[in-house]
Amino acid sequence: MNLSPGQLDILFQALGDPTRRAILERLARGPASVTELAAPFDMALPSFLGHVRRLEAAGLVATAKDGRVRTVTLVPGAFTPVRGWLDEQRALWEGRLDRLDDYVTRLMKERANGSGSED
Amino acid sequence: MNLSPGQLDILFQALGDPTRRAILERLARGPASVTELAAPFDMALPSFLGHVRRLEAAGLVATAKDGRVRTVTLVPGAFTPVRGWLDEQRALWEGRLDRLDDYVTRLMKERANGSGSED
To answer: Which residues belong to any copy of the HTH arsR-type domain (chains A, B) (predicted)?
Structure first.
């Protein structure tokens, strides 16, 4: 994956807020108008819109205006870079555990052979 | 998963920085001293230590001091809450696509039946 570090920064930072994650959780169930989205939050509309704009800037949601209604939708595949980074970390970690496992197995074989010749 | 929103905030915010992600990538290959970790970065040591402390506060790394050497290790399973949240989003999204699929299939069957009776 050829992602600039900046894109991952923006994505992770966008996800590091409970209101923004709640918006994404709601949108995973389907598109919603800004008014619908804002209803569960005890927050001034400008602050709420700031969160929506932040998600839009991160490429996590898209908005479209039809008359007076602005509809917000989740961008398909928007979490892919974040998943990709986590998958890479898991692969590195598992690679390390495999190497440790090989090393311990070799060490135990060498010991078994060593103690066998001493008997 | 019973995670407080605050824990996810701290984790995502900790991951939203290129230096901190690079430290985690290095540690996925195995533990390292602070000196080794800091070497590739053109950064004053206090700033670098601030990043290590931030990762430690998020529960992503653990540090231990042995004499003058402080060793940093990745905490196993530290990414689990982040993965858990992403998995939940995927499940919600896929559930929605399945329902859409069912709806379209039903609609097409009704149309096929409807146009059949009109013929």
So the answer is: 1-94
Shortest Cα distance from B77 to chain A (angstroms)? 10
Instruction: Find the CB nearest A9 among B17, B86, B96.
Output: B17
A83 in contact with chain B, both atoms CB, cutoff 8 A = yes
CATH of domain A7-74: 1.10.10.10
User: Any chain B CB within 8 A of the CB of A87?
Assistant: no
ipTM score for this prediction: 0.82
B68-96 pLDDT, tens digit each: 999 999 998 899 999 999 999 989 888 88
Q: How far apart are CA B47 and CA B15, in angstroms?
A: 16
Cα A104–A109–A112 angle (5° rounding)? Answer: 125
8 A C-beta contact, residue A69 and residue A33: yes
